Fold this sequence. Notes:
By secondary structure, this protein is of the alpha/beta class. The chain folds into 2 domains: 2-59 and 115-202 and 382-392, Glycogen Phosphorylase B (Rossmann fold); 204-374, Rossmann fold, CATH 3.40.50. It is 41% helix and 17% strand. The chain has 17 helices and 13 strands. It has helices spanning 15-26, 60-65, 69-74, 78-91, 94-99, 102-110, 131-139, 160-167, 178-187, 204-211, 238-250, 266-275, 292-297, 312-319, 349-361, 363-374, 383-392; strands at residues 2-8, 32-38, 54-55, 120-126, 141-149, 172-175, 195-197, 224-229, 255-260, 282-286, 300-303, 324-327, 343-345. The strands form 2 sheets. Strands 3-2-1-4-5-6-7 form a 7-stranded parallel sheet. A 6-stranded parallel sheet has the order 10-9-8-11-12-13, sandwiched between helices. The chain is globular. The N and C termini lie close together (12 Å).
Amino acid sequence: MKKILFVIDSLSSGGAEKSLVSLLTLLDYKKYDVDLLMFSPTGLYLPLLPKEVNVLEVPKFIKIQHNNIMHLIKNKNFKELYLRFRASFSLRNPSAKKNMHSAQINWRWMSKGIDKLSKKYDIAIAYSQGTPTYFVAEKVEAVKKICWVNTDYKKASYSKAFDAKYYNQYGNVIAVSDHNKEVFINEMPSVKEKTSVIYDIVSPKLIKSMSVNNGGFQDGFDGIRILTIGRLVDVKGYDMAIEACYKLKKQGYKFRWYVIGEGNLKVKLENMIKEFQLEDTFVFLGIFQNPYVFLNQCDIYVQPSRFEGYGLAIAEAKILQRPIVATNFTVIHNQIQNRENGLIVNMNPEAIYQGIKEVIEDNNLKEYFYRNLSGEDVGTEEEINKVCCLIESV
Length: 394
Protein backbone atom coordinates (compact mmCIF):
# COMPACT_ATOMS: atom_id res chain seq x y z
CA MET A 1 0.00 0.00 0.00
CA LYS A 2 1.53 3.30 -1.10
CA LYS A 3 1.98 5.97 1.55
CA ILE A 4 0.88 9.40 0.31
CA LEU A 5 1.08 12.81 1.96
CA PHE A 6 -0.93 15.85 0.87
CA VAL A 7 -0.01 19.28 2.26
CA ILE A 8 -2.17 22.41 2.07
CA ASP A 9 -2.55 25.55 4.19
CA SER A 10 -6.11 24.77 5.31
CA LEU A 11 -9.47 23.60 4.02
CA SER A 12 -11.12 27.01 4.17
CA SER A 13 -13.32 28.10 1.27
CA GLY A 14 -11.44 28.27 -2.01
CA GLY A 15 -10.95 26.51 -5.31
CA ALA A 16 -7.77 24.61 -4.39
CA GLU A 17 -9.31 23.43 -1.12
CA LYS A 18 -12.52 22.28 -2.79
CA SER A 19 -10.54 20.57 -5.54
CA LEU A 20 -8.40 18.67 -3.02
CA VAL A 21 -11.47 17.37 -1.18
CA SER A 22 -12.96 16.24 -4.50
CA LEU A 23 -9.71 14.47 -5.38
CA LEU A 24 -9.55 12.74 -2.00
CA THR A 25 -13.12 11.43 -2.33
CA LEU A 26 -12.14 9.63 -5.56
CA LEU A 27 -8.98 7.85 -4.34
CA ASP A 28 -8.96 4.08 -3.80
CA TYR A 29 -8.15 3.62 -0.11
CA LYS A 30 -7.57 -0.09 -0.57
CA LYS A 31 -4.46 0.92 -2.52
CA TYR A 32 -3.39 4.12 -0.78
CA ASP A 33 -2.62 5.09 2.81
CA VAL A 34 -3.25 8.84 2.82
CA ASP A 35 -2.08 11.49 5.30
CA LEU A 36 -3.16 15.13 5.13
CA LEU A 37 -1.18 17.94 6.75
CA MET A 38 -2.77 21.38 7.14
CA PHE A 39 -0.99 24.30 8.77
CA SER A 40 -4.35 25.44 10.08
CA PRO A 41 -6.51 22.32 10.58
CA THR A 42 -9.81 24.13 10.15
CA GLY A 43 -12.03 25.19 7.33
CA LEU A 44 -15.34 24.89 5.61
CA TYR A 45 -14.50 21.63 3.83
CA LEU A 46 -12.97 19.79 6.78
CA PRO A 47 -16.17 17.82 7.53
CA LEU A 48 -16.25 16.62 3.91
CA LEU A 49 -12.96 14.72 4.14
CA PRO A 50 -13.26 10.96 3.56
CA LYS A 51 -12.98 9.09 6.86
CA GLU A 52 -10.01 7.14 5.49
CA VAL A 53 -7.82 10.28 5.37
CA ASN A 54 -5.51 10.58 8.37
CA VAL A 55 -5.18 14.22 9.44
CA LEU A 56 -1.73 14.88 10.92
CA GLU A 57 -0.96 17.08 13.87
CA VAL A 58 0.20 20.58 13.00
CA PRO A 59 4.02 20.74 13.33
CA LYS A 60 4.92 21.92 16.83
CA PHE A 61 6.65 25.13 15.76
CA ILE A 62 3.70 26.24 13.60
CA LYS A 63 1.26 25.43 16.40
CA ILE A 64 3.32 27.48 18.86
CA GLN A 65 3.39 30.39 16.43
CA HIS A 66 -0.40 30.61 16.68
CA ASN A 67 -0.03 31.54 20.36
CA ASN A 68 0.09 35.20 21.38
CA ILE A 69 3.38 36.89 22.25
CA MET A 70 2.78 36.89 26.02
CA HIS A 71 2.22 33.13 25.92
CA LEU A 72 5.53 32.67 24.08
CA ILE A 73 7.34 34.79 26.68
CA LYS A 74 5.68 33.03 29.61
CA ASN A 75 6.68 29.62 28.24
CA LYS A 76 10.19 30.80 27.35
CA ASN A 77 9.74 30.04 23.65
CA PHE A 78 12.52 32.50 22.85
CA LYS A 79 13.62 30.96 19.54
CA GLU A 80 10.04 30.98 18.28
CA LEU A 81 9.62 34.55 19.51
CA TYR A 82 12.80 35.69 17.75
CA LEU A 83 11.80 34.09 14.43
CA ARG A 84 8.31 35.54 14.63
CA PHE A 85 9.71 39.04 15.17
CA ARG A 86 12.16 38.64 12.28
CA ALA A 87 9.39 37.46 9.95
CA SER A 88 7.07 40.25 11.13
CA PHE A 89 9.79 42.87 10.63
CA SER A 90 10.50 41.57 7.12
CA LEU A 91 6.81 41.62 6.22
CA ARG A 92 6.69 45.32 7.11
CA ASN A 93 9.81 46.07 5.09
CA PRO A 94 8.70 47.79 1.84
CA SER A 95 11.77 46.53 -0.03
CA ALA A 96 11.15 42.89 0.95
CA LYS A 97 7.44 43.13 0.15
CA LYS A 98 8.23 44.60 -3.26
CA ASN A 99 10.50 41.74 -4.27
CA MET A 100 8.98 38.71 -2.53
CA HIS A 101 5.61 37.13 -1.82
CA SER A 102 4.59 37.17 1.86
CA ALA A 103 4.76 33.35 1.95
CA GLN A 104 8.40 33.53 0.86
CA ILE A 105 9.26 36.16 3.47
CA ASN A 106 7.61 34.07 6.18
CA TRP A 107 9.26 30.84 5.10
CA ARG A 108 12.74 32.35 5.03
CA TRP A 109 12.53 32.81 8.80
CA MET A 110 9.93 30.35 10.03
CA SER A 111 11.53 27.35 8.30
CA LYS A 112 14.45 27.62 10.72
CA GLY A 113 12.17 26.46 13.54
CA ILE A 114 10.28 23.67 11.75
CA ASP A 115 11.48 20.08 12.11
CA LYS A 116 11.34 17.53 9.31
CA LEU A 117 8.52 15.00 9.42
CA SER A 118 9.71 11.70 10.85
CA LYS A 119 7.46 9.58 8.62
CA LYS A 120 8.70 8.67 5.14
CA TYR A 121 6.39 8.59 2.12
CA ASP A 122 6.23 7.12 -1.35
CA ILE A 123 4.58 10.30 -2.66
CA ALA A 124 4.44 13.77 -1.09
CA ILE A 125 2.14 16.32 -2.73
CA ALA A 126 2.11 20.08 -2.09
CA TYR A 127 -1.38 21.02 -3.22
CA SER A 128 -0.79 24.74 -3.55
CA GLN A 129 2.10 27.11 -4.17
CA GLY A 130 3.80 28.97 -1.35
CA THR A 131 4.27 27.42 2.09
CA PRO A 132 3.06 23.90 1.18
CA THR A 133 5.58 23.82 -1.70
CA TYR A 134 8.45 24.95 0.52
CA PHE A 135 7.47 22.57 3.33
CA VAL A 136 7.31 19.44 1.15
CA ALA A 137 10.59 20.35 -0.55
CA GLU A 138 12.54 20.90 2.68
CA LYS A 139 10.75 19.08 5.49
CA VAL A 140 9.43 15.85 3.95
CA GLU A 141 11.27 12.71 2.88
CA ALA A 142 9.58 10.97 -0.06
CA VAL A 143 10.52 8.83 -3.04
CA LYS A 144 8.70 11.29 -5.30
CA LYS A 145 7.48 14.83 -4.77
CA ILE A 146 4.71 16.58 -6.73
CA CYS A 147 3.47 20.14 -6.43
CA TRP A 148 0.40 21.98 -7.71
CA VAL A 149 0.36 25.51 -9.14
CA ASN A 150 -3.22 26.74 -9.01
CA THR A 151 -2.75 30.44 -9.69
CA ASP A 152 -1.32 32.72 -12.34
CA TYR A 153 2.25 32.49 -11.05
CA LYS A 154 3.42 35.78 -12.55
CA LYS A 155 0.52 37.86 -11.28
CA ALA A 156 0.83 36.30 -7.82
CA SER A 157 4.21 38.08 -7.53
CA TYR A 158 6.44 35.27 -6.30
CA SER A 159 10.19 35.76 -6.50
CA LYS A 160 11.49 33.36 -9.15
CA ALA A 161 14.99 33.46 -7.70
CA PHE A 162 13.68 32.34 -4.31
CA ASP A 163 11.41 29.62 -5.72
CA ALA A 164 13.72 27.98 -8.25
CA LYS A 165 15.59 25.80 -5.76
CA TYR A 166 12.31 24.47 -4.39
CA TYR A 167 10.63 23.64 -7.70
CA ASN A 168 13.77 21.94 -8.94
CA GLN A 169 13.33 19.38 -6.15
CA TYR A 170 9.99 18.17 -7.53
CA GLY A 171 9.53 15.28 -9.92
CA ASN A 172 6.33 16.78 -11.33
CA VAL A 173 4.75 20.22 -11.33
CA ILE A 174 1.01 20.31 -11.99
CA ALA A 175 -0.78 23.40 -13.34
CA VAL A 176 -4.59 23.54 -13.21
CA SER A 177 -4.99 25.14 -16.65
CA ASP A 178 -3.10 25.46 -19.92
CA HIS A 179 -2.64 29.17 -19.30
CA ASN A 180 -1.22 28.57 -15.83
CA LYS A 181 1.21 26.08 -17.30
CA GLU A 182 2.34 28.49 -20.00
CA VAL A 183 2.85 31.33 -17.53
CA PHE A 184 4.67 29.10 -15.05
CA ILE A 185 7.17 27.60 -17.51
CA ASN A 186 7.89 31.07 -18.92
CA GLU A 187 8.77 32.18 -15.42
CA MET A 188 10.47 28.92 -14.39
CA PRO A 189 11.91 27.38 -17.60
CA SER A 190 14.15 24.94 -15.69
CA VAL A 191 11.09 22.79 -14.86
CA LYS A 192 9.43 22.94 -18.29
CA GLU A 193 9.89 19.23 -19.06
CA LYS A 194 8.22 18.08 -15.85
CA THR A 195 5.27 20.52 -15.87
CA SER A 196 1.87 19.28 -17.04
CA VAL A 197 -1.82 20.09 -16.67
CA ILE A 198 -4.41 18.38 -14.47
CA TYR A 199 -7.70 20.24 -14.24
CA ASP A 200 -9.49 20.73 -10.94
CA ILE A 201 -11.90 17.85 -10.41
CA VAL A 202 -15.55 18.75 -10.97
CA SER A 203 -18.33 16.18 -10.58
CA PRO A 204 -21.63 17.12 -12.30
CA LYS A 205 -23.46 14.24 -10.61
CA LEU A 206 -22.43 15.41 -7.13
CA ILE A 207 -23.11 19.09 -7.83
CA LYS A 208 -26.56 18.43 -9.31
CA SER A 209 -27.55 16.18 -6.41
CA MET A 210 -26.41 18.76 -3.83
CA SER A 211 -28.10 21.63 -5.67
CA VAL A 212 -31.60 20.35 -4.85
CA ASN A 213 -31.03 19.96 -1.11
CA ASN A 214 -32.90 22.09 1.39
CA GLY A 215 -31.64 25.60 2.02
CA GLY A 216 -30.63 28.41 -0.24
CA PHE A 217 -32.02 31.93 -0.20
CA GLN A 218 -34.18 32.63 2.84
CA ASP A 219 -35.10 36.31 2.39
CA GLY A 220 -38.29 35.86 0.39
CA PHE A 221 -37.06 38.25 -2.31
CA ASP A 222 -39.00 37.86 -5.56
CA GLY A 223 -36.79 39.85 -7.94
CA ILE A 224 -33.70 38.91 -9.95
CA ARG A 225 -31.02 37.15 -7.92
CA ILE A 226 -27.41 37.71 -8.99
CA LEU A 227 -24.75 35.52 -7.35
CA THR A 228 -20.95 35.65 -7.06
CA ILE A 229 -18.85 33.02 -5.26
CA GLY A 230 -15.27 33.71 -4.17
CA ARG A 231 -13.00 34.93 -1.41
CA LEU A 232 -13.26 38.59 -0.45
CA VAL A 233 -9.85 39.54 -1.82
CA ASP A 234 -8.68 42.06 -4.39
CA VAL A 235 -8.24 39.63 -7.31
CA LYS A 236 -11.94 38.71 -7.20
CA GLY A 237 -12.94 42.23 -8.29
CA TYR A 238 -15.69 42.94 -5.78
CA ASP A 239 -14.98 46.67 -5.93
CA MET A 240 -15.94 46.60 -9.61
CA ALA A 241 -19.00 44.50 -8.80
CA ILE A 242 -20.23 47.01 -6.23
CA GLU A 243 -19.91 49.87 -8.72
CA ALA A 244 -21.73 47.81 -11.37
CA CYS A 245 -24.43 47.05 -8.79
CA TYR A 246 -24.85 50.79 -8.14
CA LYS A 247 -25.31 51.43 -11.86
CA LEU A 248 -27.95 48.68 -12.09
CA LYS A 249 -29.82 50.06 -9.11
CA LYS A 250 -29.88 53.55 -10.59
CA GLN A 251 -31.63 52.07 -13.65
CA GLY A 252 -34.45 50.77 -11.43
CA TYR A 253 -33.99 47.02 -11.87
CA LYS A 254 -35.52 44.86 -9.14
CA PHE A 255 -32.58 42.68 -8.11
CA ARG A 256 -30.25 41.65 -5.31
CA TRP A 257 -26.61 40.73 -5.70
CA TYR A 258 -25.49 38.01 -3.27
CA VAL A 259 -21.94 36.97 -2.41
CA ILE A 260 -20.78 33.66 -0.94
CA GLY A 261 -17.31 34.02 0.53
CA GLU A 262 -15.18 35.48 3.31
CA GLY A 263 -11.87 37.33 3.27
CA ASN A 264 -9.70 40.14 4.53
CA LEU A 265 -11.42 42.83 2.43
CA LYS A 266 -14.84 42.37 4.01
CA VAL A 267 -14.78 45.52 6.16
CA LYS A 268 -13.45 47.64 3.29
CA LEU A 269 -16.12 46.29 0.95
CA GLU A 270 -18.87 46.81 3.53
CA ASN A 271 -17.80 50.45 3.83
CA MET A 272 -17.94 50.76 0.05
CA ILE A 273 -21.45 49.28 0.07
CA LYS A 274 -22.53 51.91 2.61
CA GLU A 275 -20.93 54.66 0.53
CA PHE A 276 -23.01 53.60 -2.49
CA GLN A 277 -26.11 53.04 -0.30
CA LEU A 278 -26.43 49.41 -1.38
CA GLU A 279 -27.00 47.81 2.03
CA ASP A 280 -30.29 46.27 0.87
CA THR A 281 -28.96 45.28 -2.56
CA PHE A 282 -25.40 43.90 -2.31
CA VAL A 283 -25.54 41.14 0.31
CA PHE A 284 -22.76 39.08 1.91
CA LEU A 285 -24.11 35.65 2.82
CA GLY A 286 -20.97 34.14 4.40
CA ILE A 287 -19.68 30.70 3.47
CA PHE A 288 -21.43 27.36 3.04
CA GLN A 289 -20.36 23.75 2.59
CA ASN A 290 -23.04 23.52 -0.06
CA PRO A 291 -23.17 26.66 -2.22
CA TYR A 292 -24.86 24.74 -5.03
CA VAL A 293 -28.38 25.29 -3.64
CA PHE A 294 -27.84 29.04 -3.98
CA LEU A 295 -26.21 28.61 -7.39
CA ASN A 296 -29.18 26.56 -8.60
CA GLN A 297 -31.63 29.20 -7.37
CA CYS A 298 -29.90 32.29 -8.76
CA ASP A 299 -30.91 33.93 -12.04
CA ILE A 300 -27.46 35.13 -13.14
CA TYR A 301 -23.96 34.10 -12.06
CA VAL A 302 -21.31 36.85 -12.25
CA GLN A 303 -17.52 36.40 -11.96
CA PRO A 304 -15.91 39.89 -11.83
CA SER A 305 -12.36 38.60 -11.21
CA ARG A 306 -9.10 40.27 -12.18
CA PHE A 307 -7.52 36.85 -12.60
CA GLU A 308 -8.18 33.20 -11.81
CA GLY A 309 -6.02 30.10 -11.87
CA TYR A 310 -9.06 28.14 -12.97
CA GLY A 311 -12.67 29.32 -12.68
CA LEU A 312 -14.02 26.48 -10.55
CA ALA A 313 -17.22 28.36 -9.65
CA ILE A 314 -17.77 29.06 -13.35
CA ALA A 315 -17.51 25.33 -14.10
CA GLU A 316 -20.10 24.71 -11.38
CA ALA A 317 -22.40 27.42 -12.76
CA LYS A 318 -22.13 25.83 -16.20
CA ILE A 319 -23.15 22.44 -14.79
CA LEU A 320 -26.29 24.05 -13.32
CA GLN A 321 -26.89 25.92 -16.59
CA ARG A 322 -26.87 29.40 -15.11
CA PRO A 323 -26.47 32.45 -17.39
CA ILE A 324 -22.89 33.62 -16.76
CA VAL A 325 -21.31 37.06 -17.02
CA ALA A 326 -17.54 37.03 -16.49
CA THR A 327 -14.71 39.50 -16.93
CA ASN A 328 -12.06 38.82 -19.54
CA PHE A 329 -9.34 37.35 -17.29
CA THR A 330 -7.10 35.12 -19.36
CA VAL A 331 -8.29 31.61 -18.48
CA ILE A 332 -11.98 32.47 -18.93
CA HIS A 333 -11.59 31.75 -22.64
CA ASN A 334 -10.93 28.08 -21.79
CA GLN A 335 -14.38 27.88 -20.19
CA ILE A 336 -16.64 30.42 -21.89
CA GLN A 337 -17.14 31.03 -25.58
CA ASN A 338 -18.41 34.58 -25.68
CA ARG A 339 -22.13 34.83 -26.54
CA GLU A 340 -22.35 31.05 -26.93
CA ASN A 341 -22.45 29.70 -23.36
CA GLY A 342 -21.97 32.94 -21.45
CA LEU A 343 -20.97 36.57 -21.75
CA ILE A 344 -17.38 37.81 -21.45
CA VAL A 345 -17.05 41.52 -20.69
CA ASN A 346 -14.19 43.95 -20.18
CA MET A 347 -12.68 44.27 -16.73
CA ASN A 348 -14.38 47.44 -15.48
CA PRO A 349 -17.63 48.36 -13.68
CA GLU A 350 -19.33 49.83 -16.76
CA ALA A 351 -18.76 46.69 -18.85
CA ILE A 352 -19.93 44.41 -16.02
CA TYR A 353 -23.06 46.54 -15.64
CA GLN A 354 -23.77 46.47 -19.39
CA GLY A 355 -23.27 42.70 -19.53
CA ILE A 356 -25.66 42.01 -16.67
CA LYS A 357 -28.17 44.47 -18.12
CA GLU A 358 -28.11 42.65 -21.45
CA VAL A 359 -28.70 39.26 -19.84
CA ILE A 360 -31.57 40.66 -17.75
CA GLU A 361 -33.30 42.19 -20.74
CA ASP A 362 -32.64 39.61 -23.46
CA ASN A 363 -34.64 36.45 -22.76
CA ASN A 364 -33.64 34.95 -26.11
CA LEU A 365 -29.97 35.23 -25.14
CA LYS A 366 -30.65 33.49 -21.81
CA GLU A 367 -32.51 30.67 -23.56
CA TYR A 368 -29.63 30.31 -26.03
CA PHE A 369 -27.18 29.95 -23.14
CA TYR A 370 -29.43 27.37 -21.45
CA ARG A 371 -29.61 25.23 -24.57
CA ASN A 372 -25.88 25.34 -25.23
CA LEU A 373 -24.94 24.63 -21.61
CA SER A 374 -27.32 21.67 -21.45
CA GLY A 375 -25.31 19.97 -24.21
CA GLU A 376 -21.88 20.55 -22.66
CA ASP A 377 -19.83 17.91 -20.89
CA VAL A 378 -18.30 19.92 -18.04
CA GLY A 379 -17.26 17.08 -15.72
CA THR A 380 -13.57 16.40 -15.09
CA GLU A 381 -13.72 13.30 -12.88
CA GLU A 382 -11.43 11.52 -15.34
CA GLU A 383 -8.60 13.81 -14.18
CA ILE A 384 -8.25 11.49 -11.17
CA ASN A 385 -6.74 8.96 -13.60
CA LYS A 386 -3.87 11.37 -14.30
CA VAL A 387 -3.28 11.76 -10.56
CA CYS A 388 -3.27 7.99 -10.07
CA CYS A 389 -0.82 7.55 -12.95
CA LEU A 390 1.60 9.90 -11.22
CA ILE A 391 1.18 7.98 -7.98
CA GLU A 392 1.63 4.60 -9.67
CA SER A 393 4.81 5.78 -11.42
CA VAL A 394 6.71 5.24 -8.16
